[in-house]
TrEMBL record:
Principal cellular location given in the protein's record: nucleus
Domain SGF29 C-terminal: 149-290
Subcellular location: Nucleus
Name assigned to this protein: SAGA-associated factor 29
Coiled coil location: 7-38
Annotated GO biological process: regulation of cell division
GO CC terms of this entry: ATAC complex; nucleus; SAGA complex
This protein's UniProt keywords: Coiled coil, Nucleus, Transcription, Transcription regulation
InterPro entries: SGF29, SGF29_tudor-like_dom, Tudor_SGF29_rpt1, Tudor_SGF29_rpt2
Residues that span the membrane, as ranges: none
Amino acid sequence: MSADTKIAELLTELHQLIKQTQEERSRSEHNLLNIQKTHERMQTENKTSPYYRTKLRGLYTTAKADAEAECSILRHALDKIAEIKSLLEERRIAAKMAGVYSDNDPPRKTMRRGVLMTLLQQSAMTLPLWIGKPGDSPPPLCGAMPASSDYVAKQGDKVAARVKAVDGDEQWILAEVVSYSHSTNKYEVDDIDEEGKERHTLSRRRIIPLPQWKANPETDPEALFSKDQLVLALYPQTTCFYRALIHTPPHRPQDDYSVLFEDTSYADGYSPPLNVAQRYVVACKENKKK
């Protein structure tokens, strides 16, 4: 089965799940309305009789079951979306690999800076939110949660990579994983900024995987960097990571971090607060300020 056919099937299944969600929600509205009316009658009569207690117990039991059923459908829908995104990513990687050229081939087209910045912003906005079940802990690579010690980034994954610049200085850039060699424990990564058209071979210690899920500040605040914590953050409108302090963590799932970048041109050594998406904030491996 081709990727296009599989994606079409998954989209059809997703459409059905969305319809089921709406049907489940419409069905449960009648029960929720009964709960509201029962409470209103209790307030009017100013008493809580055994009859009302029994009735409410039954209504709330039904409401809980309805909510769990809707939640199950929504989780199934999220799984379908994840499958679709994975297939689209596989197709993108295959197209990229098919376009690999030799020195005798014409050079590939360079992506315009504005287009690249828009794609990076879209990637940050569409990063899935981690939604665990009651009692679940945020997994590795959810928000500020580090990767496991044996984690190996997959082909196509975006990472922060420490490379040598033209002037000999080292810098952290946004890169895409091309491959990983288990024999040498080294990655091959491409600079995400195609203007550079550079491929780097780097050891694992020079690679920091980016988050694969956003952390929800309302349910998993421990999976976020805290105020004044030192991090590496992608400077707005660039493809480079720089050291920064967390000024304000996100308050809502859709919020960005507010960070203070190290900047010697300011009296206190830090820039004014700038917003950076969860997708592009990672732990800083260097603890001491240079």
